[in-house]
Amino acid sequence: xxxxxxxxxxxxxxxxxxxxxxxxxxxxxxxxxxxxxxxxxxxxxxxxxxxxxxxxxxxxxxxxxxxxxxxxxxxxxxxxxxxxxxxxxxxxxxxxxxxxxxxxxxxxxxxxxxxxxxxxxxxxxxxxxxxxxxxxxxxxxxxxxxxxxxxxxxxxxxxxxxxxxxxxxxxxxxxxxxxxxxxxxxxxxxxxxxxxxxxxxxxxxxxxxxxxxxxxxxxxxxxxxxxxxxxxxxxxxxxxxxxxxxxxxxxxxxxxxxxxxxxxxxxxxxxxxxxxxxxxxxxxxxxxxxxxxxxxxxxxxxxxxxxxxxxxxxxxxxxxxxxxxxxxxxxxxxxxxxxxxxxxxxxxxxxxxxxxxxxxxxxxxxxxxxxxxxxxxxxxxxxxxxxxxxxxxxxxxxxxxxxxxxxxxxxxxxxxxxxxxxxxxxxxxxxxxxxxxxxxxxxxxxxxxxxxxxxxxxxxxxxxxxxxxxxxxxxxxxxxxxxxxxxxxxxxxxxxxxxxxxxxxxxxxxxxxxxxxxxxxxxxxxxxxxxxxxxxxxx
Length: 539
Fold this sequence. Notes:
By secondary structure, the chain is α+β, with helices and mostly antiparallel strands. It contains 18 helices and 16 strands. The strands form three sheets. It has a nine-stranded mixed beta sheet with strand order 8-7-6-9-10-14-13-12-11, with helices on both faces. A four-stranded antiparallel beta sheet has the order 1-2-3-4, with no helix packed on it. A three-stranded antiparallel beta sheet has the order 5-15-16.
């Protein structure tokens, strides 16, 4: 059916063609001509994407391909500001680290994706472009391509270039100080993909009912931020991947603080080969080392803590020290929990209770360093704080699943998630230093920062929108906007300009002959009183 002439005569962009579609062929799309192809000597046109439609005799462009001058093609004049500015301030050095490995364009793209995943928690890859354009990130770093197809392809290519990710991680581990504590831990992330080799049923699959991938990371306790990470299949035990993780990231110095899933024996050769690399790990409660060295016979009370007893012993024949602790509060809690289960399952036994009471609330650590007992306990205690923050990272930032399919995309996406984790911890440190976490949560602070937008109404000047005074005060505490200057304090003493004024003469210095007499002046006794009548008469 030919296109009606009145439809063809509607003004539309050059190099386009009108296509009729719909059940009755009464709807008209405008498609772009992108070239031609040779078929048997004939040059046939090639149509490109649809760029608009003709509706009621008027050409209406699609927003993504809007013609200049329309509302859709106008710049965004209201953008998220405070959260982006703060993130860039605490995270900018990472852009330099990325630029040492990647070309400037790729480094900028990775950097922007990591920031957007923190400032827009739970953001999907296809939402990155709009979030970028409506935030001040597009003002600080203009021209970054973050469309859906671009990001999808980029993450895949990022995973393929695995050597660059390893290079970046090794640069970070080489900067770790020798006396710093590295907490090594793993976390599981849901990945239901059937086309990548990392997704598999983990040890928690029975309760979760989903496939997982395993992500190991090292955390610098003194800097309070992650140093490196690596993806492993979900069915691989932490002990199996421990040695590979240390070797690939070239962790050669520091003190690794692990949990029971990361025994020293799993990476023994790496500790032997690197004399500046040490470990501090808990041992299992049924370990023979405990009974052999009487580690449950505590010899003192731990300084700086309440209700905690300890014992420290050197293992015979080896350069290994054991540290044991008993927390009386945790012991009573564990005993209550055990009694509750025994009552429910009807398995109570006095002999069993007495045997269990020896280990309730206890922890035994082993290390190749001779440390003060207080330092060893504090280092291991801190790792549980990291566990809490990582749980928040997975839930609040919604990084508990991968949302990508093949191996390369998973690796590339997890690299961006690692950088987002790094930024999250730096923001937490910034909020803590400003004293904001005392009465607010991290989520609440980020919510306030997302409301601090800037608007451009005239010209190119951006202005902060009006905000609640308490929110403005928060921005000032974070040094995002300057604090108002206090009025100058008045100096104590005589006012300015009073230096040359004549001093008042005290009465004592006036001669007696000059002192005024008290009472009515002389001669005023016979003066007539002034009355209203006398005033009227005189006038």
